[in-house]
Amino acid sequence: MTERTLSGIGVTPLSGVGTVVWYRPDADLPEPPAPADVDAEAELARFEDARAAAEDELEAERERTAERVGEEEAAVFDAHVQFLNDPQITDGVSDAIEGGLPAEHAVQETFTEFVEQFENMGGRMGERADDLRDVRDRLVRVLSDGERVDLSSLPEGSVVVAERLTPSDTAQLDPERVAGFVTVTGGRTSHAAIFARSLALPAIVGVGEELQSVEDGTEVVVDGESGDLVVDPSDERKEAAAAAADVDIRHEAVETADGVDIEVAANIGTLADLGPAVDRGADGVGLFRTEFLFLDRESPPDEDEQYEAYVEALESFDGGRVVVRTLDIGGDKPVPYLDLPDEENPFLGERGIRRSLGPDADLFETQVRALLRAAASADGANLSVMLPLVSTVEELRAGRERFESVAADLDAEGVANELPEFGIMVETPAAAFMADQFAPHVDFFSIGTNDLAQYVMAAERGNERVSELGDYRQPAVLRAIDATVSAAEGEDCWVGMCGEMAGDPDLTELLVGLGLDELSMSAVTVPQVKAAVAETDTADARDLAERVLQADTKAEVAEILTLDQ
């Protein structure tokens, strides 16, 4: 067979070689009986029993996913439980049953209506359609006494190919058996993509309908970096993919080819992420998303629980820095026990430091107490703390004053504490424009490129319709990064990056050239980025950065980067 290539969206910088196994879980229901033959009361009872059984399954699946993949990924199943019990949906199913449909057909009809509504919204809301499909299919399977396809025991070397993969599907995949997966639909922020990065699986999404032409049993190469699916690959192509997958893990710190130290750290959401970060050679933690300590519970963690979590993170790395981001609630991170406003556009609303200095001031004070105590622990000298979504000098000053005030209170109580290294996230245009005013008041900046690209380009990062605009290779985003780094020059202020851009090894040379001191990413990409750092010469990197900053378009940026490789 002649080698051919299909293109999609690569979501992990990993390659895999394997054999296609098509996953087609959808089964059509038989025609429903006549409405007069349907016992509505019995069908309503069946629906309630199925809901209870589905909720039990979801709770068990959530627990398994938290242990195996991570708490952040497992949280998706909480949303599934909410959909399962959503009054709009359950009332819709009940009405359909009362109208003469059996329970499984009523579920299919009602959920499909909501799936279509979410799909029409696009962006992050559009991606929730997969969650609804997942819940729908689970209920239909329970009602129909169907058997679930076991994706956890596929033959070794399988490449799973599907129209789409739901969170429940992806959570089953065993990286020891699966060489990768490819889907017709999906984007970089889909649940399947997020799970792929956490599981360190080569993956491509959004290939399109052309993927349907690839048959079961076909040998393929999955290039999760380029987004290329190579069908019937040559021996040379397979050997190259195997070599690319064989990346050495460096547990020691890394420097450029000419001796410049670059810190390569990991982003974590929960303590379960610490082990994989250490195993993949991370120098420390560049972003500890503390909001995940507050999710999926009935009340917030107290001071001691938070203190123990921060100390555990510090103890996991031998002298490595741990950068903790204070509570970033709001936007796409709702907390059920907080009175969060119903905002038309929550990403432009009350989130991050805006809540910590306002309605969540008590929570913020408790968190600061725990952090100051952790800074005084045996490993606390390596603790750094940063504030999210800072946009004004007033917010920065107020945040810093809160730390100093809490330190004074702890001193008065006789409680050991230290002020940690203090910084802010740069994720808004305001922060980039004002970086020269912020720099004298902080020890570091950490650039969050996911939000920075979204806000600079006015393009929601989860909206596939504007994904080209929201790309971090857009000249405006690169110039915002450059402005931030330039503002820190001459000040005692280092600059890191903890957005998705930091984990792209194809951009490592550019980021070194722009002057970044630290790069933090999903643990899966740490080895590739360390390897890229070691191969980088800083003079060449600076030349590359200068040429890229002169580019007028994203296409020009891409061309310069491609020619440089």
TrEMBL record:
GO cellular component, one term: cytoplasm
Name used for this protein in its record: Phosphoenolpyruvate-protein phosphotransferase
Domain Phosphotransferase system enzyme I N-terminal: 8-128
Major subcellular location class: cytoplasm
Active site: 191 (tele-phosphohistidine intermediate), 498 (proton donor)
Binding site for Mg(2+): 427, 451
GO molecular function annotations of the record: kinase activity; metal ion binding; phosphoenolpyruvate-protein phosphotransferase activity
Pfam families recorded: PEP-utilisers_N, PEP-utilizers, PEP-utilizers_C
Job description of the protein: General (non sugar-specific) component of the phosphoenolpyruvate-dependent sugar phosphotransferase system (sugar PTS). This major carbohydrate active-transport system catalyzes the phosphorylation of incoming sugar substrates concomitantly with their translocation across the cell membrane. Enzyme I transfers the phosphoryl group from phosphoenolpyruvate (PEP) to the phosphoryl carrier protein (HPr).
Cellular compartments annotated: Cytoplasm
PEP-utilising enzyme mobile domain location: 154-227
Gene3D superfamilies per UniProt: Phosphoenolpyruvate-binding domains (3.20.20.60), Phosphohistidine domain (3.50.30.10), PtsI, HPr-binding domain (1.10.274.10)
Enzyme Commission number, as recorded: 2.7.3.9
PANTHER family the record matches: PHOSPHOENOLPYRUVATE-PROTEIN PHOSPHOTRANSFERASE (PTHR46244)
Superkingdom of the source species: Archaea
One GO biological process term: phosphoenolpyruvate-dependent sugar phosphotransferase system
Reaction(s) catalysed by this chain's protein: L-histidyl-[protein] + phosphoenolpyruvate = N(pros)-phospho-L-histidyl-[protein] + pyruvate
Cofactor(s) listed in the protein's UniProt record: Mg(2+)
Domain PEP-utilising enzyme C-terminal: start-end pairs: 249-537
Coiled coil regions, renumbered to chain: 37-75
Protein's organism: Haloferax lucentense (strain DSM 14919 / JCM 9276 / NCIMB 13854 / Aa 2.2) (Haloferax alicantei)
Binding site residues for phosphoenolpyruvate: 289, 325, 450-451, 461
Family: Belongs to the PEP-utilizing enzyme family.
